[in-house]
Amino acid sequence: MPSSPGRTAQVMADIRRRAASRQLGPGDRLPSIRGLARSLGASPSTVAEAYDRLAAEGLIRARPGSGFFLAATALPLSLAAVAPQPEREIDPLWMSRQALDGGDAVLKPGCGWLPADWMPDAAIRRALRTLSRADLSILTDYGSPLGAPPLRKVLARQMSMAGLPVAADQLLLTGSGTHAIDLICRFMLRPGDTVLVDDPCYFNFRALLLAHQARVVGVPFTPEGPDPDAFAHAAARHEPRLYITNSAIHNPTGATLSARIAHRVLNAAAVADTVIVEDDIFADLEPEPSARLAVLDGLTRVIRIGSFSKTLSASVRCGFIAARPDWIAALTDLQVATQFGGPSPMAAAMVAEMLIDGSYRRHLDMLHRRLNRKRREAAASLAELGIQPWLTPRAGLFLWCRLPDNRNATVLAERAFRENVVLAPGDVFSAGRTARNFMRFNVAQMGDARLMPMLRRLLGEVPPYGPPQQPGRDAAGMTATGASS
Amino acid sequence: MPSSPGRTAQVMADIRRRAASRQLGPGDRLPSIRGLARSLGASPSTVAEAYDRLAAEGLIRARPGSGFFLAATALPLSLAAVAPQPEREIDPLWMSRQALDGGDAVLKPGCGWLPADWMPDAAIRRALRTLSRADLSILTDYGSPLGAPPLRKVLARQMSMAGLPVAADQLLLTGSGTHAIDLICRFMLRPGDTVLVDDPCYFNFRALLLAHQARVVGVPFTPEGPDPDAFAHAAARHEPRLYITNSAIHNPTGATLSARIAHRVLNAAAVADTVIVEDDIFADLEPEPSARLAVLDGLTRVIRIGSFSKTLSASVRCGFIAARPDWIAALTDLQVATQFGGPSPMAAAMVAEMLIDGSYRRHLDMLHRRLNRKRREAAASLAELGIQPWLTPRAGLFLWCRLPDNRNATVLAERAFRENVVLAPGDVFSAGRTARNFMRFNVAQMGDARLMPMLRRLLGEVPPYGPPQQPGRDAAGMTATGASS
């Protein structure tokens, strides 16, 4: 077979795809010319020409006598590789980047945070003025590796009052809630380890776990927490290293974990020797505390994480981890090695100030009332379009809704994005991609009068997703196993 | 052989050591009872009893029919495992933790930063008051994934003026300089990859690379940069993925890279296809810019990182990466996945304010003059004790000094620590542990009158290190290869 331009391009595309999907890493040897020719049904001269062209581009390099290798300067570990380029698919990272990137002209009913004008403006400005008079060491030094003692003290007191006694050596401040989970993953996971998540779950868990090269298995979620039988089954079958979940105000559903399911999940995790990360970043939006895995377990195999990004300021960058002292010691070493110090001592001082002077508590009271009202209003507006919440959350920002007539939420989100509206389609939350006609709405970001008419119009335009839902599927439209890798 | 209590304890200690040193990870299967008995020369009943006792402790768990496994709740990936417990050896992490942890009662001539009262007090407080009047979105939102545009614009302009043209999509803000290197390592490295560092180098590079499970190879360092022949040899032999270095005001030596060596290092890196991380966090302390790998290379295979922790405030937590646009895109995704957002927009706004209003430039002028004076004074005081700098740095905080009579710097640091003085002994900077009679002094942290008398007394007490230095070794006391893993 002679070399042909079309075939050469195909072989080049094949190698590029392997590099982008990380089947081939920088420095890895490429298949031999003969071997690849055989497996692709191409001529050796076609493959040789493709390799020469890729070497000229710099993607691969020849080493005399030992073959071709992917260049170190080729794009290595890339999260973007999970989606085709250049038109990036709607995936978890697309979701984060669009929500973060969009300027003021973009409406964001799909984002996961409150509008700036819901935040405690006066309290933050007052805390900054107070900070401008603080000890110089707070303004210039690295601070303690565990994080600023005043904030750690307030947090420990709050947790103890909520039934979770926490000693001083069980609490580490971090740069954010996501950073807290990332440190835990670095500490606990090795590439190929299995991690359980809820299906659906917060979409960035999946991007984060991809960065750790973990295998993600979804457990079907019910209005009271993960399906306990499916959880026990997945735990026994996969012996996962970690399970990551939100117990209070679950993202995206807004569900609350019941004590009954909490108890069963803990027992199944104990049998499988699985560590649980309870991500409580929305917890302060709860008017009354609900069941917590960390409280039942007493920080034996449960790690609690939190932050102030959702309730106070995302600009302040401050999260925390509560865990066993030996784990906190190791996590502190990891944070020093990888960040040289925890969160900004200035940031911790600002947060502590607002927690101590009562402005945070008053702000939360206001948020509860305002979110309750907006949740009712949003549910009523969406109902007019036939968009129904899966459950009525007790608290929080989110309504997890089914689109009418099995409309494809991903296509709807793509069309809305062209009109400068960022929506959050179900599949970015689902490891099993089983929520194609679901959408997460942020009730605090739906005030713009253009939104509902646009949704109504687009609902009429987008196609339904595949066949109608099977009656055997559960209320969230998820498959029986929910497992996917 | 019957089971004996002493032998049982030995077997238990052996398994604990394997877990601590990560030979055994959580979930890993332990050796079979018979196999371990054979290899340790113990009786199977001794090993069985040791396993039962470890299972009762929770370190390991039995799975009926399939043997014993290290428990997931056993201490997994632990950087502390590199040093024996509970009395931790003086290692890179000990160095960081002690320098960060010590309160005001501790003298820190071994730390790597300026005292709080050297920092621009008035400018920081003014920037905080300005910030308290900023747009609410800066005070509450996540900000753009690449980092705040005003700071990125100033940084790009400064780099362009220094001969390194940088486009808007080539600059990413991060949480710190260390965090910048950590992101790059996550992007570039896989466990087992080789990374070149200078011998000696900044000690936290080694802790960071341990967290990435990289193999670290040290290249002997000369007063003009890495030994170019040794670098070319190590690059050719190990084909390292990365080389991490400081070109300006090298840590710990204070050396300045020469243009001649920069050129040779770049060529050797190109042959071996090695990516270079040029850590420039001390660069602003240079009165005149010196040779830079990034400038010669134009951000093809060199990545430049920097931060403001050393020159403005370590509390403000803001670093940056300048690199190829495709790498910046992938690093941005990684930062979103692992931190959800870059540095605090508030922090970036404060830094930008001080860069734009000229207070940073005036502060740097003051720092140059003050450091020059302190460097002369410290060198004179140390000379009285027979402590000689390896070279006289053009700028910066550090004096890298040889102790007289081959005194053991690690023992000296241990004794000083008991007297609340944190010193920085040579070996924490040396991948090859070839700097046992060297010490890094921070000239800005030597003002306390107790320091010199204590050093004089301790120098008389501590033993010399091993045999006298071989004449064949170079001035830094390093071996010819400097390679170590």
UniProtKB/TrEMBL annotation, chains A, B:
Keyword terms of this UniProt record: Aminotransferase, DNA-binding, Pyridoxal phosphate, Transcription, Transcription regulation, Transferase
SUPFAM superfamilies per UniProt: PLP-dependent transferases, Winged helix' DNA-binding domain
InterPro entries per UniProt: Aminotransferase_I/II_large, HTH_trans_reg/aminotransferase, PyrdxlP-dep_Trfase, PyrdxlP-dep_Trfase_major, PyrdxlP-dep_Trfase_small, Tscrpt_reg_HTH_GntR, WH-like_DNA-bd_sf, WH_DNA-bd_sf
This protein's record includes keyword Transcription: yes
Xref: PROSITE patterns: HTH_GNTR
Ranges of residues in domain HTH gntR-type: 5-73
Stretches for region Disordered: 462-485
Record-level Gene Ontology MF annotations: transaminase activity
Membership in a protein family: In the C-terminal section; belongs to the class-I pyridoxal-phosphate-dependent aminotransferase family.
Protein name according to UniProt: PLP-dependent aminotransferase family protein
Gene source species: Rhizosaccharibacter radicis
